[in-house]
Structures are given as structure tokens and as C-alpha cells.
Design goal:
Helix content: over 70%
Largest sheet: none
Shape: flat
Radius of gyration: 22 Å
Strand content: under 5%
Order of helices and strands: HHHHHHHHHHH
Number of domains: 2
Structural class: mainly alpha
């Protein structure tokens, strides 16, 4: 087992059976991490429900079926377990694919991969504390004199989960842009030159996110624009693909 899960070097030569054996082991470890997280989250489901219901300010979501309280609680626990076990799952994925990268490509990929879980968590926190309260305040008070507004638990938790996941993924913008820059696809100068087009794309993405009300759309646009500008600064500071290629050529000639 220790041999199977150890990191494999770029120059190592493994057979198809060895690759499949390593993949199976890493999948088992990822599923084990998810299973432990799921058991923990289901054990503490009351705490998770209290955290998710906090933006409702005392209003309790309703259920319409006999089994719906259990199925909704279990589904929400599974979403929370994915979030908790995500670092372990990502590590197993990265450790499996990184041996295919050259040393130069690995120097490009490793800092980006380390940024992914931290940016995802930052996006989820931003979505919970900033986007969700503003979106719920607007949506739940829109035309309330015309509707008997009731909050169904399954729909509410699906809305919250989709919004938080979307915010977490949107916070990956620096990783995507920095990766393209390090690979030589784009340059900081091009990023600055096409800033207006980037803002247009950001507006379209924000419009396509869950909760298409104008309030949440504008709130989601602000960090995306800030992250785009941050990506330019990171590209200037760390994105030097030409130097990495030169280093590789020099080391190959040596």
C-alpha cells in the first residue's frame, strides 16, 4: 500500500496495471475521506442546518413529504462533506496526474494547485456572508403583498448550495488566468488591453449564476472584477514562462 500511494516521478515507468492500481488506491482514499466527512456532517446536521438557516433570520423552511426531512438533511450533509473532504480529494487527483508533467510544467502547476482550495473556501465564505443575505433580502421581499411566501427546505438548500459553489468556482479566476499566462497563452499586456471585454464576460457570468436578481448579480460582479485585476498583478509578478523555458533549455544542454 505504501508503494502504491507514494508520489510517482516524471521519469518513472509504470505499467498499465500499476497505473490502474494506483488510481484505485487513490479513489479509495478519496472515498474514505468523503465517508468520514459525511458521517461527521450527518452527526452534526443540526449545526449545519442552523448555519444554513441563519440568513433566514428565524424563518424555518417547510417540508411537504414524509421522508423529505430525512432526505433533505442527508443531501445537505453530503454537500458539506464534499466541501470538507475537497482538499484530500484534490490532493489525490493532483498526485495522480502530476507525474505526467515535466519539471517545468510542475513548477507552473504546483503554486496554482495550492491556490485552488483556499480560493474556493474564500468564495464560499464571500457567498455566505455577502451574496446570500443580499439576495435573500431582495428575493423574499419582492412583491410580498401579492404572494404567500413560503420557503421549501429542498429548494432553499439547493439554492444556497448552488450559489455557494458558484461563488467558490468564480474565485478560481486568478488560477485560470495565471495558468494561461504561465503557459504563454496570454500576457499581462493583453489582459489590460482587453479589460473591457473581460468585464462584459464577467457580467454575463454573473447573470447566469443562481439568483439572477440585479442585487446579487452586482454583488457577485464586484469580487470577480477585483479578482481579474489581482490576476493581472499575479501575472506580472509570477508569470514568466520565457524564463522557465530558458531554464529548461539550459539544463537540457548542460
Amino acid at each position: 500500500m505504501a508503494r502504491r500511494i507514494r508520489p510517482v516521478g516524471h521519469d518513472d515507468r509504470l505499467s498499465l496495471v500499476d497505473h490502474l492500481d494506483e488510481l484505485r488506491t487513490r479513489i479509495i482514499l478519496a472515498l474514505l475521506a468523503f465517508g468520514v466527512a459525511l458521517a461527521l456532517c450527518f452527526w452534526q446536521n443540526h449545526l449545519i442546518l442552523r448555519i444554513i438557516n441563519e440568513p433566514l433570520h428565524g424563518r424555518k423552511p417547510i417540508t411537504l413529504g414524509v421522508a423529505e426531512p430525512f432526505t433533505t438533511t442527508f443531501t445537505l450533509s453530503a454537500y458539506a462533506a464534499i466541501l470538507i473532504s475537497l482538499p484530500v480529494i484534490l490532493y489525490q487527483l493532483y498526485a495522480f496526474i502530476l507525474p505526467a508533467f515535466t519539471p517545468v510544467e510542475r513548477r507552473v502547476a504546483m503554486p496554482l494547485l495550492l491556490m485552488v482550495p483556499f480560493l474556493f473556501i474564500a468564495g464560499v465564505v464571500f457567498g455566505y456572508y455577502v451574496v446570500m443575505p443580499a439576495a435573500l433580502k431582495f428575493l423574499l421581499h419582492f412583491n410580498t403583498h401579492q404572494f404567500n411566501v413560503q420557503i421549501r427546505a429542498r429548494d432553499y438548500y439547493s439554492f444556497v448550495t448552488m450559489t455557494l459553489v458558484a461563488c467558490g468556482l468564480l474565485f478560481q479566476i486568478p488560477v485560470a488566468i495565471l495558468g494561461l499566462n504561465r503557459l504563454g497563452v496570454v500576457t499581462p499586456r493583453q489582459l489590460r488591453k482587453n479589460r473591457r471585454y473581460a468585464i462584459l464576460v464577467i457580467a454575463v457570468l454573473a447573470m447566469l449564476l443562481p439568483g439572477v436578481d440585479p442585487v446579487s448579480m452586482l454583488i457577485e460582479m464586484v469580487p470577480m472584477i477585483v479578482l481579474y485585476e489581482l490576476s493581472i498583478l499575479l501575472a506580472v509578478a509570477f508569470g514568466r514562462p520565457s524564463e522557465d523555458v530558458s531554464d529548461q533549455v539550459v539544463s537540457a544542454e548542460g
